[in-house]
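Ticket 4471: requesting a sanity check on a complex prediction with D-xylitol-5-phosphate. Repro inputs:
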Amino acid sequence: MTIIAPSILSANFAALGEDVKDVDQAGADWIHIDVMDGHYVPNLTFGPLVVGAIRPYTKLTFDVHLMIERPENLIPAFVEAGADRITVHAETCPHLHRVVGMIKEAGLPAGVALNPSTPLSALDCIVDELDMVLLMTVNPGFGGQKFITQSLAKLKALRAMLDTRGLNGMNIQVDGGINAVTAPLVREAGANVLVAGSAVFTEQDRRAAIASLR
Ligand code: DX5
Ligand code: ZN
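Returned structure tokens:
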């Protein structure tokens, strides 16, 4: 079953709780929370205080995507704020095994994200510890960007790598440029968790928008 995770990066920041409740009622499975620090990526969004503020608006899984330098410094605060799963970028973690361990010791499933140009080999010594791999299908930082088509080959290679290692139950998440056109392509290539920001939040009919991705 495909998991649809609307990204609140494209939501109405002046009424974030209401928008989260709206997509919950429109059939979203997870809420994807894009945390950006203006250093690792050229955009600045929100931190644990905002996550805590929207927590009461939905019981859906808070899927926190940390696009920040030194994510280990904020993992406890995001756990406290109500994160249900946390994904960190391999590119921001020289001590990735230790950071993944921090997330798991906090009792949360851990994900590792790779930017479009980061090879799958970055996962070789950590993938067995993970619940999810996130393949960025745009360069991180902004919503509404164009899907990078080379991602499809990388996605197929990842699915094959996981199957070879007996990890076919692992979640593969894609993030960036996912819409009614690219959704069937990424599902076919092996993704089972689809993040969509602009494809959902710019639509009046969120229920139809979410359904169009399944
Ligand atoms: C980009 C974020 C994505 C983004 C997706 O850095 O990680 O989650 O919000 O936005 P769309 O779906 O509009 O490409
Ligand atoms: Zn994201």
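Notes from triage: Residues 72 and 117 are 23 Å apart (CA to CA). Leaving this open until the requester confirms.
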